Amino acid sequence: MTAPVPADVMSRLKAVLGEGGWSQDPERLAPKLLEWRDRWTGTTPFLALPKSTEDVAAVVGICFEAGVPITTQGGNTGLVGGQIPQGEVLLSTERMRAVRDLDAFDDVVVAEAGVTLAAVHEAAAGVNRRFPVGLASEGTATVGGIVSTNAGGTQVLRYGMVRSLVLGLEAVLPTGEVWNGLKRLRKDNTGYDLKQLLIGAEGTLGVVTAAALKLYPVMASRAVAMIGVESPRAAIELLARAKEETGGAVEAFELMGRLGVDFALKNIAGTRDPLAEPHPWYVLAEFSSGEPGSAEAAMSRFLEAGLEAGLIRDAVVAQTDAQAKALWAIRENQSPAQKPEGATWKHDVSVPVSRVAGFLERATAAMQAFAPGSRIAAFGHMGDGNIHYDVLRPDGGDDAAHAARRDEGSRIVHDIVAELGGSISAEHGLGSMKTEEARRYKSAVEVATMAAIRASLDPKRIMNPRVLF
User: Fold this and answer.
1) Which end of the chain has fewer CB atoms at under 10 Å, N or C?
2) Would you call 21 helix, strand, or coil by DSSP?
3) Are 101 and 121 in contact (CB under 8 A)?
4) Whole-number Å distance between alpha carbons of 178 and 148
């Protein structure tokens, strides 16, 4: 637990933030001290609510001078505990909600850290553009959060991680200095790309206060299909065919096991079984194109060829936007649908796409041997090799007993991932959950280099001190 924050530091913070810029009210703090799955709870003596970059700089400067640690929080949608303070000052970006600029010629939106992903989508749509990051938590996830965690989502296959979609950043460094790197250039080879250090750094190298984000044209045609398949190996074959059929215009290619669909049917009101008969695995595929009718035609050809090849057992194509949303809701509700089912060991892992099936086979065999009766809910982004591999307690089993074996079980899963050349954290980050675990899989050179970078920017280690190396 972090040392108590001195009273004089809190007095100075109150003075620079002013009325409405801070809180110590337990009811106000409570929602920010609990991770949404109820796995992590925290404490803080002081909630800072800056409204501007200048406010953030003042808060960080005071804390740096006094050596007082800070945890930064956006929408509190993180899944590895990095946003939950353990006695540190909690700096929330919730009041930094301005969209500073929107330019359809430069294809850019400049948004402050507290702007939600949904608000970015809405702003982009206003100029007939889109920001291609899709997350189930888009209504609460914020710009600062998705940048600081290098978020992934459902469209990485075509557009890359958030790292690929950031043109420039503004940030407050651990000393309280403001770095204004809000450029909107596609090319700039004038030295180190400092924004890339901050992207994915989970708040350890500074507080992201605004970002210039790439926008793309709205597509003229879109096709969404739910496909029943026998196995992940069949899904991998279909993915290759989809890329070839569309010339790379696959917007998303998601994989789900039947158990996850069953959980959604059971626990998410309004969910309907997507196909007439159950199937072992499902693919949710989306194609898009700038040419009217092109995506629909490509989907038709793709499905027909897949059926003829015996790779597809059954499929349904959305005929309306409402039907497309209903199919996507099954995928987006995979995690919420698990919550009523009890204790879960969650894994956000990635392996090369060609090894996804092998990972699922090996991991499931290992978990059945280690925890007989456990239920495996696997789903994720087949298109980029990112699988959310969740091991739930046996039906009717004891939550505490299952949770007690989490670390040992996760080590088995992570060792398999490492053997397959994968990552133990594909898109969620390390947070306080995986930092020590990551030392097993990172080389000494990697850990030492990252630690040196951090020490040079944050010599007092005040920024998210429990996270990373």
Assistant:
1) N
2) coil
3) no
4) 16
